[in-house]
Amino acid sequence: MNIADKLKDLGYELPAAAAPAANYVPYMIAGNTLYIAGQIPFLNAQPMHKGRVGEDLGVDEGIEAAKACALNILAQADAAVNGDWGKIKKLVKLGAFVNCTPDFYDHPKVVNGASDLMVAVLGASGKHARFAVGAPSLPLGVAVEIDAIFELA
Fold it and tell me: What confidence tens digit (pLDDT) does each residue in 2-52 have?
């Protein structure tokens, strides 16, 4: 499967895999598991989707932030397998944090932006378990941060 072509068909572009911003690696392979570090909604090093959902941003902007995180997850996975998506069996789990106000309750709706994109790109192998929780703040003031776990073939 060519992820870049699939994304293009959906109106997206595979971004460059971001370098880590601190003392960690952007992905780690352990056995047949690929762990992707938390990805934020900066595409090709361009800041976007900063603020708190329910205060500075609406749900639709949160959804777009989650989609940007998903694109960055796909970029990291692509780097991890050197572009050979035949090495990826399936997406196992997404873990998502939404920077939001204490009275915001639509975390799942926001994170569906990422989940829906993963299924659109990966098909049945993109269906996954996940969590979606609120946080009072996130790094660099972004609206969403999402990590991922993939099973390798």
Answer: 888 999 999 999 999 999 889 999 999 999 999 999 999 998 888 899 999
pTM of the shown model: 0.97
In the chain, the N- to C-terminal Cα span, in Å, equals 14
Question: Could you tell me the two tokens for 36?
Answer: 């992707």
Query: Which domains, from first to last, does the chain contain?
Result: 3-15+30-152 (3.30.1330.40)
């060519």: which residue's tokens? 2
DSSP, residue by residue, 109-142: HHHHHHHHHHHHHHGGGG--EEEEEEES--GGGB
Contact call for residues 150 and 33 (beta carbons, < 8 A) = yes
Beta pairing, strands 27-30 & 33-39 = antiparallel
**Sheet hosting strand 144-152, strand order edge to edge:** 27-30, 33-39, 144-152, 88-99, 129-135
The one-letter amino acid code at 98 reads: V
Between CA 79 and CA 71 the distance in angstroms is: 12
66: left (phi over 0), alpha (psi -120 to 50) or beta: alpha
What are phi and psi for residue 137, nearest 5 degrees? -165, 160
Nearest partner of 53 among 138, 118, 114, judged by Cα: 138
